[in-house]
Amino acid sequence: TKSEKKKKKKNPLKQEYEPQPGECTTQTPRPFSDLFWLFVFSHVSAFNKGTDLEKAMATAALVFYNATGPDGKLSGAQAKELLLTQFQVFTSGQENKPKYKEILADLEEKDKTLDMEDFMVLLISVMVMSDMMQQIQAVKVAS
After folding, report:
1. What is the 8-class DSSP label of residue 142?
2. What residues contact residue 11 under an 8 Å CB cut-off, 6+ apart?
3. How are beta strands 74-75 and 113-114 bridged, if at all?
4. Sign of the CA dihedral 54, 49, 37, 140?
5. 74 in helix, strand or coil?
6. Of 71, 55, 84, 85, which Cα lies nearest the Cα of 114?
7. Does pLDDT of 112 surpass 80?
8. Which of 33, 43, 71, 79 is the most buried (most CB within 10 A)?
9. Who contacts 135 (Cβ-Cβ below 8 Å, separation ≥6)?
10. Are 87 and 32 in contact (CB under 8 A)?
């Protein structure tokens, strides 16, 4: 029946495994499916008519909120896991830098939580100190 088919449809915004709030998983988060992006692109106006920067920020927000618990925050351990699995281009090669070590140690504090603003500051901080910045600065995109 139609009602049974509706129940069987999967929500493209939900991951198959959802960690509990405060739980840090050791598995790499599942990449977003094509169905997820189709849903997002059709429902979030920034993706339909936004600039490249607006699309990038909206994507960062989606990744953050897909990983948070009901309170809209990440534990420090969750933030570290997300940083190490979803931001690898920028974290690669940073392991011996004192500031990077300090950031990771801060995330390991027991009661540490990050809201969206804290998470975005974390991303920007890691990006700015990364070895990738020289390559990014060298690229000039034609307008």
Report:
1. -
2. none
3. antiparallel
4. negative
5. strand
6. 71
7. yes
8. 79
9. none
10. no
pLDDT of 36 > 70? The answer is no
How high does pLDDT run on average in the chain? Answer: 77
Distance CA 20, CA 80 (A): 16
3-state DSSP helix/strand/coil % of the chain, to nearest 5: 60, 5, 40
Distant-in-sequence contacts of 133-137, Cβ < 8 A, 24+ apart: none
Strand partners, 75: 113
The two structure tokens encoding residue 53: 């920067």
Mean pLDDT of 117-142: 89
DSSP string over 15-34 = -SS-PPTT---SSPPPPPPH
- Regarding pTM above 0.70, the answer is no
Most confident among 7-16, 23-32, 88-97 (mean pLDDT): 88-97
Percent of the chain with pLDDT over 90: 39
Lowest mean pLDDT among 22-31, 56-65, 111-120: 22-31
The whole-angstrom separation of Cα 19 and Cα 68 is 9
Query: Roughly how many angstroms between the first and final C-alpha of the chain, as a whole number?
Result: 53
